[in-house]
Input
Amino acid sequence: MAIALTKPGIDLGIVTGDGDAALRFYRDTLGFRQEPDTQFPGGGTMHRLWCGESLIKIVVPDKVPAARPAGGGPMGGTGYRYWTISVSNLQQLVADCRSGGYEVRVEPREVRPGVTIAMVEDPDGNWVEFLQSG
Output
């Protein structure tokens, strides 16, 4: 049986040791809309931000885990390595990220006719891909 979705977006949890830095990137630089914070089970705060119809949950645990994921973007290890956001203003978004001090890991490039991508590293080392079609 196929999955029976109940909403068109997904919820993505990002655990961070620096909630302020994560909010500066996702809320202030990228422009995600913030909802009221909630408590995270087990101790911590969850900042809830909307990216289109997907909820991005920035989790700041009371005790930051010592383990860190492998760096290096998509080819740095297995598992969840990056996520993609489709946009209509790729060049401006990359410029805003760069001026905010964020690392542009993949400069804007056409990957197939009419499709351009760029990848930026968030404050925790997670890579976010921006994709523009047309």
Remarks:
- Strands lie at 11-15, 33-39, 44-51, 54-61, 82-86, 104-112, 115-121, 127-133.
- Residues 78 and 103 are 21 Å apart (CA to CA).
- DSSP finds two helices and eight strands in the chain.
- The two ends are 35 Å apart (CA to CA).
